[in-house]
């Protein structure tokens, strides 16, 4: 017996094909207009639009309506390439906004372990967001041992890469990074910073930076909106390198 596709999925696929022909930020018809066009209830239309919104193809804004989303930002997937350097290499304008900078605060046990600090230790926490075309792309929650946090000027995070700031603060270079990425449900704080519903899925990178002698100097969690970002990893195999590519 052939499976029958739900009506809202069929509508979503029809709209998806039409979105290709529209410019970013184009305004789509109202739910009422779509329900008349497809001869379905507004509930069915909403279900179709939710599929498109979850995939990042449209955005629904109260008071503005449903618009075609801009193309997803491409983030190079590399632990040593800062957001700032990545965006500048592609000529993309961005803005960093510091949300908070707090000294001598508690941190989740996981981050204390990554900083190799005893349970109950107090740390410095920096929270910031990155915006491209006035849209929040990602949220950073960064933790430092207090002795390092006391040397950091949070205002610099809006104009300099965080890696540069901490290297200047400690007078050493970052020697090593530990980095894990996965898709998680966002916490309440992260969801609020990204403008998402609580527990919405986000792409996260949990990192720790080390100075010489493997001393951890910073750890944190970077959370990206999956509807506004995609990630690219590129590496050329040595066997595929031409003579001109060889070092």
Defining key terms:
about 250 residues, alpha+beta, Arc Repressor Mutant, subunit A, Chorismate lyase, 2 domains, six-stranded antiparallel beta sheet, two-stranded antiparallel sheet, 10 strands, about 25% helix, elongated, disordered C terminus
SSE map:
Elements: H1 7-19, H2 31-38, H3 42-54, E1 58-61, E2 65-68, E3 73-76, H4 83-89, E4 95-105, H5 109-114, E5 123-132, E6 135-145, H6 146-149, H7 162-170, E7 176-185, H8 188-194, E8 201-210, E9 216-225, E10 229-232
Parallel strand pairs: 3-10
Antiparallel strand pairs: 1-2, 4-5, 5-6, 6-9, 7-8, 8-9
Question: How would you characterize this protein structure?
Answer:
With 247 residues, the chain is of the alpha+beta class. The protein folds into two domains: 62 residues, Arc Repressor Mutant, subunit A (Orthogonal Bundle); 160 residues, Chorismate lyase-like (Chorismate lyase). It contains eight helices and ten strands. Strands 4-5-6-9-8-7 form a six-stranded antiparallel β-sheet. Strands 1-2 form a two-stranded antiparallel sheet. The protein has a two-stranded parallel ribbon with strand order 3-10. Helix 1 crosses helix 3 and helix 2 packs across helix 3. The N and C termini lie far apart (60 Å).
């Amino acid at each position: 017996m052939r499976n029958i596709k739900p009506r809202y999925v069929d509508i979503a696929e029809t709209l998806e094909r039409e979105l290709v022909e529209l410019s970013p930020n184009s305004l789509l018809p109202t739910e009422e207009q779509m329900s008349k066009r497809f001869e379905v209830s507004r509930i069915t239309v909403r279900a179709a639009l939710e599929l498109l919104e979850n995939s990042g193809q449209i955005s629904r804004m109260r008071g503005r309506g449903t618009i075609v989303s801009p193309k997803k930002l491409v983030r190079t997937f590399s632990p040593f390439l800062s957001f700032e350097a990545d965006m500048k290499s592609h000529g993309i304008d961005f803005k960093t906004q510091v949300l908070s900078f707090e000294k001598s605060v508690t941190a989740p046990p996981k981050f204390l372990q990554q900083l190799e600090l005893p349970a109950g230790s107090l740390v410095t926490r920096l929270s910031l967001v990155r915006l491209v075309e006035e849209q929040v792309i990602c949220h950073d929650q960064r933790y430092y041992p207090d002795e390092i946090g006391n040397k950091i000027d949070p205002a610099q995070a809006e104009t300099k890469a965080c890696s540069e700031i901490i290297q200047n603060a400690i007078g050493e270079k970052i020697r090593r990074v530990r980095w894990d990425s996965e898709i998680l449900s966002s916490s309440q704080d992260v969801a609020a910073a990204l403008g998402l519903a609580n527990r919405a899925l986000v792409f996260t990178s949990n990192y720790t930076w080390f100075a010489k002698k493997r001393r951890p100097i910073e750890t944190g969690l970077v959370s990206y909106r999956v509807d506004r970002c995609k990630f690219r990893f590129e590496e050329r195999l040595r066997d595929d390198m031409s003579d001109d590519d060889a070092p």
